[in-house]
Design goal:
50 strands; 757 residues; 3% helix; elongated; 32-stranded antiparallel beta sheet
């Protein structure tokens, strides 16, 4: 009996448990339970025409009226089965009264008790001193009495509920009334106390949750936490399950130092006659921030943030969408960001676009506008100044292409018409057209692709009062010839005792583009391309259409791949370098040509040479200066479930040198350690760190730890978190440790995978 003490009503008044938590007042309405793994219950279908079959070792009475069953009594009607020591069955009423080791199965749910009264036709009745186990989520409990209201619904009086499987569960809730409605998939409790390790941790006058883990409306668990500057805050989310394809979560948040903030996140997806659509919008609003001092006298102290995206198909060929990011002021990311990515996001894009597709062409029209949030430290450190990109009001792009026409030719046409706007810089309209024609020659072990193209551009520039320049028109025509050729050799090979296929793939890429003076042309959206393996096989060394680099160059590369028996790539080794036969005269903002006979060398190695080991590496080496320009190395070790170790190193000369280590690892008996350190060797400081512990029990998980990341050049945030997650019910604690761990540690695996909304 000692192992069942948790099932019995408390001997003393539980009022003191309510005083233990400040969360009582905000959980006084139904709550939402997180998702639970397991099978979904099949629809309940009762066969009302089914007969009741009875059997026992001894049957007495009148068969047409009332019979008494003794010793191993059993009654079965459709999906309801009753067994007991003795039972009395009244045939006219289709009702059974059973006593002594009563057991009942209803649609997979299992109940035991001392006494049962039930109508086999309606499912109504009661059971005394019952225990129960539910099929859908394996929940269990015990009570003084269960009233069966119908086939789907049972009312548990002075009982308990837990998803733990042991007879003495680690956590359970005890309620004076607990309605378990399998038909509506909802459990509703009255006055409730949640116990953990037999200690009351939360009290609430009312509680509701999903029995199968399906989404449903209600209050989520309160979320105490700390803001980006360490200020305490309390969030009490409310979830609205509007429809199977729509939901809305409200995030009322109390920030004592600032005021009351309301957040809302709406998600939706669906289908119309035209096609699919989906989107998500997140809003935050804090009126009259008590701590915020506006940058301009008399400015608003209201703080807000918006994130929204939407995509929709209007027909098979036509779609549109938008993306919106906005904030009330420059300091918003510093004051309210909870992650590294959001704290460093300074260029907020607002875009509306539409796409129309034909059989071999695509037309895209969009408008783009940016809001720039300046780093507060840029006033004293100009290097932190965030430049404002040009707005595109609008940009229209057209692409058309056909392959293998007129005896094997490929042709393509790319064109654009863009109006560039900037509040302080030169403005204008750019029109670009790039027709190109190629003739691929492809064999079993080789390919040769000669291609000719021409870049045609026209600029209509506005007068600029700041610089005193007048309106003018500029145009250019820049042809390009290129030849891309390569060979593919294969051979069988033994690697690590396994049969693999090794390839050797030499490749040459020649480009010839004549020089055209473009020094008078603006640079609306153009920059030098990053030197990597993708870029060395492109005709233009610039990204964007404002500069077309002159070239007389040859790229040579050698790639070797190792393919396993399934054809998957286990290892790839690559080497590449570009050779220049003419000085590079076209530059972004300079008339000084670049005089180089050859480029830096690129070396790369990537693969997963074993099931548990993966790596990626890249090196850029300058032969003329005999030094490394940039390098990056990452190694991941995944020896088993919930075991991962990541090592990384990134270096760019005169810019940064960072070391990154992260891991999730079992420490001892159900305990797991998680951690990450990103360290700047050049600045001798930690850029980001995370340390935490997790404990995985059968029916609950505990997480705790702290994270630190940079919010500005001189400031950092150090949120702490701890969380107790009760599988199948809810989670309690401070902060969002699960989100921090998943975002910080590549390969992180949730301990209770399958739970959670």
């Amino acid at each position: 009996m000692s192992c069942l003490r948790w099932l019995l009503p408390p001997s003393t008044s539980p009022r003191w448990a309510y005083a233990l938590t400040a969360i009582v007042t905000v959980t006084s309405v139904p709550g939402y339970a997180q998702s639970v793994p397991g099978k979904t219950r099949a629809p309940r279908v009762e066969n009302k025409a089914a007969v009741t079959v009875i059997q026992a070792e001894d049957i007495t009475g009148r068969p047409e009226r009332e019979v008494t069953l003794t010793r191993d009594a059993e009654l079965v009607k459709d999906q309801t089965r009753v067994k007991a020591d003795t039972a009395c069955y009244r045939q006219v009423e289709d009702e059974v009264h059973a006593e002594g080791k009563v057991r009942i199965w209803r649609f997979g749910d299992y109940f035991t008790g001392d006494e049962l009264q039930m109508n086999m036709d309606t499912g109504q009745g009661y059971m005394l001193n019952p225990t129960y186990r539910m099929e859908t989520n394996h929940a269990q409990g015990k009570a003084e009495r269960i009233n069966f209201l119908n086939e789907d619904e049972a009312l548990v009086l002075n009982g308990t509920y837990s998803t733990c499987q042991s007879a003495n569960p680690d956590w359970y809730l005890r309620s004076n009334t607990l309605n378990l409605d399998s038909g509506r998939d909802v459990g509703t409790a009255g006055k409730t106390i949640i116990y953990f390790k037999d200690v009351p941790i939360l009290g609430t006058p009312a509680l509701s949750f999903s029995l199968s883990g399906a989404r449903r409306s209600g209050w989520l668990s309160p979320m105490p936490g700390f803001g980006s500057k360490g200020a305490a805050e309390l969030t009490v989310p409310y979830y609205l399950n509007i429809a199977p394809n729509r939901d809305l979560t409200l995030y009322p948040k109390i920030i004592p130092r600032r005021g009351f903030q309301l957040g809302a996140n709406g998600r939706y997806l669906g289908e119309t006659e035209g096609g699919l659509y989906q989107g998500e919008t997140y809003l935050e609003f804090l009126p009259h921030d008590k701590q915020y001092i506006p940058s301009t006298p008399g400015g608003s102290t209201d703080r807000w943030s918006v994130r929204s995206h939407h995509t929709q198909e209007l027909s098979n060929d036509w779609s549109y969408g938008w993306q919106v990011r906005a904030a009330s002021d420059n300091n918003y990311p510093n004051d309210f960001s909870k992650t590294v990515s959001s704290s460093t996001e300074r260029q907020l894009l607002r875009e509306l676009r539409t796409d129309y597709h034909g059989e071999f062409w695509t037309l895209t029209a969009r408008v783009q506008k940016y809001q720039v949030l300046q780093d507060p430290e840029s006033v004293v450190d100009p290097s932190l100044f965030v430049s404002r990109p040009y707005d595109r009001l609008p940009a229209i792009n057209f692409h058309a292409a056909q392959y293998d026409v007129a005896g094997g030719f490929d042709w393509a046409m790319d064109s654009e018409l863009t109006r560039f706007y900037h509040p302080t810089l030169l403005r204008g309209t750019r029109m670009v057209a790039i027709p190109q024609l190629s003739y691929p020659i492809i064999g079993a072990s080789y390919f040769i692709t000669p291609k000719a193209s021409v870049n045609l551009a026209r600029y209509d520039l506005d007068a600029n009062e700041t610089t005193g320049s007048k309106a003018e028109q500029l145009s250019r025509s820049v042809p390009t010839l290129s030849v891309d050729a390569g060979l593919v050799f294969e051979r069988p090979l033994q690697l690590g005792g396994k049969e693999v296929t090794q390839t050797l793939e030499p490749r040459l890429f020649y480009v010839n583009t004549p020089y055209r003076d473009q020094s008078r042309f603006p640079t609306f959206d153009t920059d030098a391309a990053t030197f990597n393996f993708s870029q060395i096989f492109s005709e233009n060394r610039f990204v964007g259409s404002d500069r077309i680099g002159d070239a007389n160059q040859l790229t040579a590369a050698l790639v070797s791949r190792f393919l396993n028996e399934a054809g998957a790539e286990a290892l790839r080794l690559a080497f590449g370098q570009r050779f220049y036969f003419r000085d590079q005269r076209v530059q972004l903002n300079s008339t000084t040509p670049v005089v180089d006979a050859r480029s830096d060398m690129l070396l790369a190695a990537t693969g997963r040479i074993a099931e548990t080991w993966g790596f990626d590496s890249a090196v850029q080496y300058s032969p003329s200066q005999s030094r490394v320009v940039s390098e990056s190395y990452t190694v991941q070790w995944l020896p088993g479930q919930k075991k991962v170790l990541n090592l990384g190193y990134r270096y760019l000369r005169n810019s940064f040198k960072n070391i990154d280590v992260s891991s999730q690892w079992p420490i001892f008996q159900r305990w797991y350690g998680v951690g990450r350190v990103s360290y700047s060797v050049q600045d001798k400081k930690v850029l980001e760190s995370l340390i935490g512990l997790e404990y995985n029990s059968d029916c609950w998980v505990f997480r705790m730890g702290a994270q630190r990341f940079v919010t500005t050049s001189t400031k950092a945030s150090t949120p702490i978190f701890f969380q107790l997650e009760l599988n199948g019910l809810s989670h309690l604690g401070v902060g969002s440790p699960l989100e921090a761990m998943k975002n910080s540690i590549p390969g992180y695996q949730r301990l209770n995978e399958g739970y959670g909304r």
